[in-house]
Fold this sequence. Notes:
Layout: H1 28-36, H2 42-47, E1 52-55, E2 70-85, E3 90-98, E4 103-109, E5 123-135, E6 138-144, E7 147-150, E8 161-164, H3 173-186, H4 195-201, H5 206-214, H6 225-254, H7 265-274, H8 281-294, E9 301-306, H9 312-325, E10 329-333, H10 337-351, E11 358-361, H11 367-379, E12 384-387, E13 401-406, H12 414-421, E14 428-433, H13 439-445, E15 450-454, E16 465-469, H14 474-486, E17 490-494, H15 502-518, E18 526-529, H16 535-546, E19 552-555, E20 568-573, H17 581-588, E21 599-603, H18 610-621, H19 625-637, H20 661-675, H21 683-699
Parallel strand pairs: 4-6, 9-14, 9-15, 10-12, 10-13, 11-12, 13-14, 16-21, 17-19, 17-20, 18-19, 20-21
Antiparallel strand pairs: 1-8, 2-3, 2-5, 3-4, 5-6, 5-7
Helix pairs in contact: 3-5, 5-6, 6-20, 6-21, 7-9, 8-9
Amino acid sequence: MKPPAPETEESSPRTAPFFSGELAGVGPARKRALAEVGFSSAEDILWWLPSRYEDRRFPTPIGQLKEGQTALVRARVLGGRTRRIYKRGLSLTEAIVSDGSGNLHVVWFNQPWMERSLTVGTEVCLFGKVVLFSTRAGLRLQMDNPSLEKADAGAADLDRVVPIYRKVAGIPGKQFRRIVLKLLDEHPPVESLPLQLRESERLPNIGEAFRMVHFPEEPIVPGGGAGEVARKRLAMEELLAVQCVLGEAKRERALASGVMIPATREAGLLLRRILPFSLTGAQRRAFREIASDLASSKPMYRLLQGDVGSGKTIVAFLAMAWAAQSGFQAAFMAPTEILARQQAERLAERVAADGMEVALLTASVTGRARRQILERLASGGLRLVVGTQSLFQEKVLFNNLGLVIIDEQHRFGVEQRARMVAKGRSPNVLVMTATPIPRSLALTLYGDLDLSVLDEKPPGRIKVVTKVRDDSAIRKIEAFCRTEMDGGGQVFFVFPLVEESEDSDTEAAVQAYERLTQGPFRGYPAALLHGRMNGPAKEKAVAAVRQGKAKLLVSTTVVEVGVDLPEASAMVVMHADRFGLAQLHQLRGRIGRSGQQGYCILMASAGASKAAVERLSVLEKSDDGFEIAEADLRSRGAGDIGGLRQWGGGGFRVANPIRDKALLESARRWAEKISRGEISWKAEEKERFGEWVRSWSGRLGSWGPIG
């Protein structure tokens, strides 16, 4: 569907300023604060779904409380006070409450204002976790930092299932709940899906769906009940819009004229000369599909998908050499400088004998060298270039750009890809990803792309032996790593991001490097690699390992994508339970690449749950990236009803393409009906849906290939 133009210039709830009227608790300052964190409309509030729920309907008598229980207690205050703990710089507010079945000690840390609600004799409702606390007099049950409401004040958060939200713009959870309820009562969202669709799919209207998710009558359990019906309704809202955007993009490209690169005898001979080995059947099939696209008058827009080690890069190199031999320029955009430099070197090796030159353009290429590259690209004297996002900077001009390769496409945003494609006149585009997705799902997710899949690995690739271990095995693992290095192998130790902070990430890697090189691996040449290092430092570390000068590499996940260190034979991933399975599979793909046996040891964190360890065991059993990715995304998407985890960075707030595979395919069918004009809907619904689709054409996140 091409989004219809609005019939009036009046704003709707989807495009209105934050609130069209006054709303309790939302003044000018709070509106500004919300806008600063991305809430630009009233509807954004409704899409900020609860992360969990608390059932505050049934009080538990104090005498029946147990350690570890999360409970609602209704009792009277016997006494309360606040005191300072000077050695720690804290305040401690304490209270004793009783309900006749027993007394309960309650404490709040650094919340001195709670004392105002602790007047002796006041009946209060407390909701929180019961813990066992040790005192000089012995052990006692107490409740730490519970929520509190006066039971006689018409408490809004009692006798019902209470939504709990991630805090946004400093708004307390209780106040946020009031805002949401006020919105639903006074500013309900306007329906956008046609009745025909809602009846066929048995979905409630948008207002009912939001009310069921925000204020359910019963605790919401993923996978069933009214909550699941509401979630499906909201997911359809997102999935249908995305499918309309993807479908329209594909139809528009079908009308465009592209750069035609016909097959020639000379090109065929060139490709045979630069091939270092025989292609697999899957590689030959994919290249035939690419060759057919290049020879067409329509611009190629194809996704090349393959598992770790399936040989995507050589297929891309063949296409680049073909374009260059035919007189066109070809650009290869990589997500990191390390990978760009590596790919430039590998491509140069392939085409050097035929006199083709490959340039590298990254942020670290400056001065005269950079000027020369830019001049030769603009004149057409340079046909092959590999780089990072530097390639789409304003000063980079191409003379005859015929082919754009975008590696690890999920690392680039829509705008970045669009700016790269705009460097030519409808050039052919090949985007590549090593994140395996089941074929039917990939066709639906990437609806504007043609799809080629590499489902074979090159012959001679040995399956990496993978084992899950915990700290009790660390000494044996260190001894094994020393044996590997003594035998000529190289070992990776990989550490996860800590609190998703670059600073914490760096500290973890640096501290581990010091500990390992001063302890169990003293005397072994080592290198450190992490995201905070500058380009030359990263290159120096990679070169040390690649040249055999370093036997041990301590790294963060910067090694995940494409870093080729063929002599690496063993990898130890610390705190592996903090990674997704697909990411661990990517990391594992860095070792055992030169035909020797590789070993990957996944170290579970101390205290990791049984479920987390069992999840890792999938990697012990399988090296099929498609199977692993589906298990990973299914497990990560099966959690809370709010769908707060964003799959693939696409900006979905409810939908999960793995869990919602059937719904997504249904959305695709409905999008096709909309494009053919087979839907009957009210003018207001059509207008609202057009606005919704237009918002998604600009919102498609890092996985979206639009542009």
